[in-house]
Amino acid sequence: METNNQINYAESSGINYQNRYPGDDLNLEDEIYEISPDKVNSSDFKRPGKKRYSDIRLSKMPVVIIIILANFIAGIMCIIANNNHFDTGGLNYEYIHNNKEYIRILSYMFLHANVTHFVNNMIALFAFGSSLEPRIGSLRTAIIYFVSGIASGLTSVYVSHMLHPDVIRFAAGASGAIFGVMCAAFFISFSDKTDSKKTNVIISIAFIIIYAIISNGANVDILGHLGGGICGGILVFVLTCNKSEDIMDNTATTVIAVVLTIIICFVGIRSAGIGTKASQMQDWRIDTVKNERIFENQSVTFGECLDNKCSDPEWTIFTTSDNVKVVEFTGKVTYNNVNSSLMIQFSYTDNPDELTINYMALNGTTMDTNSASLLFNYLCQDYFE
């Protein structure tokens, strides 16, 4: 490059511009831009570095610590009570759908089958939670954990019932919620917080699905794991994809997250019924009988009539020695000015149209078809149009 140049200084800008003589061909390679050191602040050219989270600080993960402590307290309570806490607070279709005990969708997260079950879950929660919470904040972590746990419970209960309606099963443990945290942690590791991509959440969910299938075994709730993992992947994408000013990473939201976590943990443990007797489990077959009409031309059902017109109503179910499914109703009724005990046994197959009353007794005396019809007419007279 030639060196015979005319030099002009632009001191106000701090830039020396070196130009060719007029008439010479302008070549971009011949242009030189020099920056005067006294005019430039070196801090203006620092690349924004990413925060390092290699050091685990308990102060940066209050939600995870509170959840672990809550599960530890619940475990100690279960050991002291020495009762079947799966019955009192575990996941079960009959309790949730028929008995309307929806609080079990929360309480089951704080119950574990044994010490090994508890330790494995808490180690996994600490390992992935300590990576997730410092990156996305305490409030997001709390939302992901508890919502994933609820989604896991709903998936486990209703999908399992659809696949195996005749199987009565219980489930408990924090693994569904932890799978949500795991999937969220994988997502964060695959993507930058300010540049979340849909492909990353798909990769994270796919990884969790593969892991859940591989780890499937006896007494492992794979449906719950899948439900929690998928929910966690979707939630972390929704909660971190917003590129506007972040309002969820400050002291106020951390305090809110801590308070909410403490409240939810308290309610969950309290509602688990540890040390108490479980309420009567109402089988789905009872609902089938209750929803059947007594008379073809009237809308009144067995459940509506018997529950409202009889005192101390109780519904149970059993299977006879010849494998006949029976729903039994017992209660007290005032009939012909006499307080009497009533028993009705319904037998049916899987086809509701084949529901029949195979036994009906008043004060232990078997009733024939005519006397049973008279009793039902008496009980249902207020419902007739």
How many DSSP-defined strands?
8
- What sequence of helices (H) and strands (E) makes up the elements? EEEHHHHHHHHHHHHEEEEEH
| Spatial strand arrangement across the major sheet | 4-5-6-7-8
Mean model confidence by pLDDT: 79
User: Whole-Å distance between the termini?
Assistant: 107 Å
CATH architecture of the largest domain: Up-down Bundle
Q: Given the C-alpha coordinates, what overall shape results?
A: elongated
- Gyration radius (Cα, Å) is 34 Å
Count of individual domains: 3
Low-confidence stretches: 1-37, 42-54
**Biggest sheet character:** 5 strands, antiparallel
CATH class division of the largest domain = Mainly Alpha
Fraction of residues in β-strands: 5-15%
Total of helices: 13
Write the CATH homologous superfamily of the largest domain: Rhomboid-like
Into which percent range does the helicity of residues fall?
40-55%
Please provide a written account of the structure.
This protein is an alpha+beta fold and 385 residues long. Helices cover 47% and strands 14% of the residues. It is built from 13 helices and eight strands. The protein is elongated. The relative contact order is 0.10. Mean pLDDT is 79; it is low at 1-37 and 42-54.
